[in-house]
Amino acid sequence: RPVNSAPTIGTWRFFLRVQMFSQSRSLQGLYPWSQHKPEKFYANKRVIIRISIACIFCYNLSAMAIHTLPVRIILAEPHAELREAVKGIVHRPPSQLVVAETDNGHEMLQNLRDNDCDLLILDLTMPGVHTLVSLKIIAAEFPQTRSLILSGKSEKVFYHRVKESGAWGYLMKEDIFRDLEKACRTIAAGQRYMTYHEDQRTP
């Protein structure tokens, strides 16, 4: 779910000026009397201004609503201590919410069926259902859910297998405390976040 930024006030001022100018030119062309009866012309101009302001107000309300929607996260990690640590990091931004957590692959898939999920954070070596198998199921059944893999494997081959399976993110466990919050934010914004031990960032 991409999150769009609301236009700046300066942008809307420019838009409003262009709108007023174009509408005033149109009124002069459509209604020749506007050049001879300025009171009617300016009355129409005031209506145009009010409509434009109302449109801007409604757009800003919709933008605010988008920004207030939390990123819904399911956390799948077999190690209880690490799961608690990850949950604590994920809960730091008020815009993120853990809706379910589990320690095995079967329950993770059931959680996905029972909850609306924007971001799935899961361990590379989940018991029950292998993570690479889960990624294929997620891609087929839950295309709206983006996956971030937490890996304790330093071999590059695991990174490539996860990337080919359609995951949106790959983060080494040693980097969790430093980079997890950034990874969640990046993926929620619609960009991939793939790292492994040889390079901090892989395009």
**In angstroms, what is the radius of gyration?**
25 Å
Report low-confidence residues grouped into runs of 5 or more: 1-6, 199-203
Count of distinct strands: 6
What is the strand content?
5-15%
For the largest beta-sheet, the strand count, sense and barrel status come to: 6 strands, parallel
Q: Calculate the mean pLDDT score and round it.
A: 78
Structural class: alpha/beta
Summarize the helix and strand pattern as letters. HHEHEHEHEHEHE
What's the N-to-C terminus distance? 21 Å
- Helicity, in percent? 40-55%
Shape: elongated
**How many H/I helical runs?**
7
Quaternary status: single chain
- Record the strand order, biggest sheet: 2-1-3-4-5-6
List keywords for this structure.
203 residues, alpha/beta, 7 helices, disordered N terminus, disordered C terminus
